[in-house]
Amino acid sequence: MKMVGLTGGIGSGKSTVAKLFEQLGIPVYNSDIRAKLLMHTDEQLIEGLKKIFGEGIYDENKQLKNKEIASIVFNNATKLQQLNNLVHPLVKIDTKKWEVENASAPYLIKESAILFETGIYKEMTKNILVVAPIDLRIERVMLRDHCTREDLLARINKQMTDEQKIPLADYVIQNDGIQSLILQVTTIHQNILSP
After folding, report:
1. Nearest to residue 138, comparing CAs of 151, 126, 122?
2. What H or E segment, with its residue span, contains residue 126?
3. Is the pTM of this model over 0.85?
4. Which of 5, 73, 92, 160 could join 80 via S-S bond, C-beta 3.0 to 4.6 A?
């Protein structure tokens, strides 16, 4: 089974690109969404998170306080590593189950914000990187997340740069609002389908 990695920095538009692949009939595993689901449903993971971040990390409705965790791990590399050590193995198991469920597809896509950072890209058949000009990325995320430019730049500066990621990618999609996303996605889709 061909498994294709899809990544891009915050605000690059990788979720939009993922939706285009889904419209072509390609199943997409969204690592962030699946990880959040596991953090709300997997009892062992919930207990592990409470040990690291305290009982108060879940509210009275047993909902994880995502923003609270994000603010902690963005400023504490040790806590981030502890979080990753808990979540990544479970996401890996979840991915395998999902692959079996979608085995009839011509290929599968795994969307992950940290595909290159974690080394997961090495396990993929091919890797797609979505890039966009930094000002456009900032504008998109500030509108979407209602955050300050300073907070956003702090998050961006903790990620690998596009210049570091491009040599690791098999395909680079330019999401600059000028070049057609549909054309780029369709071209890559046909390329992946060809033997």
Report:
1. 151
2. strand 126-131
3. yes
4. 73
Rounded Cα–Cα distance for residues 152 and 138 (Å): 7
* Angstrom distance (rounded) from CA 92 to CA 97: 9
- Give me the pLDDT at residue 104, please: 97
- The CB density around residue 18, as the number of other CB atoms within 10 Å, is 22
Backbone angles phi, psi at 110, to 5 degrees: -110, 115
Type of residue at 190: Q
* Distance between CA atoms of residues 110 and 6, nearest Å: 6
Q: Is 180 exposed, middle or buried (0-12, 13-18, 19+ CB in 10 A)?
A: exposed
User: What are the tens digits of pLDDT across the range 39-67?
Assistant: 999 999 999 999 999 999 999 888 899 88
Q: 49, 57 in Cβ contact below 8 A?
A: yes
State which amino acid sits at residue 48: G
The residue type found at 77 is A
- In this predicted structure, what is the pLDDT of residue 155? 81
In the sheet that holds 3-8, the strands lie side by side as: 28-30, 108-111, 3-8, 126-131, 171-174
Which parts of the chain have pLDDT scores under 50? Answer: none
Q: Which residue in the block uniquely carries the two structure tokens 């500030």?
A: 142
Burial (CB count <10 Å: 0-12, 13-18, 19+), residue 157? exposed
